[in-house]
Amino acid sequence: MASLQHSQAIKGAKVLMVGAGGIGCELLKTLALSDFQDIHIIDMDTIEVSNLNRQFLFRQSHVGQSKAKVARDAVLRFRPHISITPYHANAKDSNFNVDFFKQFNVVLNGLDNLDARRHVNRLCLAAEVPLVESGTTGFLGQVTVHVKGKTECYECQPKPAPKTYPVCTITSTPSKFVHCVVWAKDLLFAKLFGDKNQDNDLNVRSNDAARSSEHAGDAFEWSGNEDLEQYGRGVYDHVFGYNIELALSNEETWKNRNKPRPIYCRDVLPDRMTQQNGNVDKTDDLSSASAMASLGLKNPQDIWCLMENTKVFIEALKLFFTKRRKEIGNLSFDKDDQLAVEFVTAAANIRAASFNIPLHSLFEAKGIAGNIVHAVATTNAIVAGLIVIEAIKVLKKDTESYRMTYCLEHPSKKMLLMPVEPFEPNKSCCVCSKTPLSLEINTHRSKLRDFVEKIVKAKLGMNSPLIMHATALLYEVGDDLEENEIANYTANLEKVLSELPPPVTDGTVLTVEDLQQEFTCNIHIKHREEFDEEKEPDGMVLSGWTQAPPEKKDGKTSIGNGASTSKSLPTKPGITEIDIEVKEISDVSPGTKRKLSEFSDGSTLDQSSDVDVTRNNKKTQKHDEDDDLVMLDHWDSNMRKKH
Ligand SMILES: Nc1ncnc2c1ncn2[C@@H]1O[C@H](COP(=O)(O)OP(=O)(O)OP(=O)(O)O)[C@@H](O)[C@H]1O
Ligand SMILES: [Zn+2]
């Protein structure tokens, strides 16, 4: 029986849930059944067909409706007297500001991306509202508690960087199927169907740059009246034939590598698939826009031969231009978009064939392209239960018993759940401890735009940044700016740092601020001439976020409360940096506080991705470059998991 204190804490609480997906639906049900009376839910999504078998509250008839509203209605059916307030909105919208957050006693995250997690973390810090964070990826899960001044914040532990590949591996020298998928999705798909103004490295680097770009301009543009099959064949020949020939002419590249072979459409598919101006159906029935369906290819687990991939490539391209023409120019790859997955699979396979890399099925390519980890409903349910347990402790201010709990894939010492005492705030965290950062950058070459995109937005997760050099404003985003201010900031973006008014040079301290997040940090600029293209592809290095843990005299890494440093927790599931201090769990009497160091399997999930641990990116499953093992590296804002 719950004590009076316990039930009063629950009944009097006003709770904000962010995310009504796999974890969020379980969480809402568990909150309602635990007697919570006042729950607010923010989710920006509507229900998709792909959510139906993954989120138990949703039905076919709900497709297209707000997740938050449907989840509310489903739970009100068995708890009609509680108050559930849904918001069909992005948690980053400006109306969810610090004052909005202040009305809640606790915030519970069931998110799927790093960006939103960081944003909510900052608002919780600013509003001084405790946050319970969560993430799952397959069988792995974690729940952590973040209370300002008492425990580390969500950003105290650096998140592992998303797996990235050197540009030249993707554009010119792929050696794994994943490189071909990244090329097909981020370059070719983006070039043909995405925003035309975006930078795109699609053109093969060549000494003859002028010739290359001249040719590229023609091949990718559809004139509007050109026969679509002919256009598709032109694109095909350009990227799989001509560009490969061009790359081959760069002999240095191939001295120690296997040469690719150019592939031309006529050699694979001599005959046209349709008559000129032929049988392309011009209806707008999006559900039938599938190249596989048109071509009679049924099994997504089949590996198509080169000819089948070629047919899917041409057919998918034609379908985009006939059935989804309005979307062209605005599309970005979505793993739930069947036609996009078909196109990317075919393009990746044709490129793989060219580079003598084994071909893969659509099912496999989709998994790689969408960074999919199949979700386990039970893990979501366990994690939702743990969130409620921690939320109740927070409401009772039972600080001593807060735990971060890790759900492991295999029992370790007969335990599947590993509770660990939370760490103290990291004194070098720039978010909760306001510690300055330092940035090595070439101030003569890097533009303000590079700094804004790669550091302020990507690394610091700011949405509406303001950048100051002493009292001078270099850049600002906002709805209330005057035209001349906008013109001024736009011009600044294109200037290299050392030419800004006033110049940003070695020794400058920039102040970067996001007013909505109430997050400010100072960045010390250090000029550096050269960067390693492979290891430092951004051309700049941000540091000072966290410091290495103190070395103990015996050489062991210090772990436990107070040692909340970058090394104190393993950051990837299965990678145990702390095996050195393993204790038998059986030695720990029930009720004894445990630290992660006491468990031999210290699997830890990073919550940046939707699984991010999903997470920063959904816990994300990536295929490791070196051994084709599926690796969880949790953090790209684009990463996704599957339920
Ligand atoms: N910035 C945000 N504001 C509001 N809701 C968000 C934000 N970012 C993510 N979400 C929501 O968080 C939820 C995360 O849930 P989950 O990871 O189960 O995703 P899903 O959409 O249900 O599944 P999948 O990503 O595999 O399609 C989603 O419903 C998503 O809409
Ligand atoms: Zn912190």
UniProtKB/TrEMBL annotation:
Residues 558-569, 600-611 have a biased composition (Polar residues). Residues 7-429 form the THIF-type NAD/FAD binding fold domain. CDD domains: Uba2_SUMO (cd01489). GO terms for cellular component: cytoplasm; SUMO activating enzyme complex. Keywords: ATP-binding, Metal-binding, Nucleotide-binding, Nucleus, Transferase, Ubl conjugation pathway, Zinc. ATP binds at residues 19-24, 43, 51-54, 67, 112-117. The active site is at 168 (glycyl thioester intermediate). This is SUMO-activating enzyme subunit. It comes from Populus alba. The lineage of its organism: Eukaryota, Viridiplantae, Streptophyta, Embryophyta, Tracheophyta.
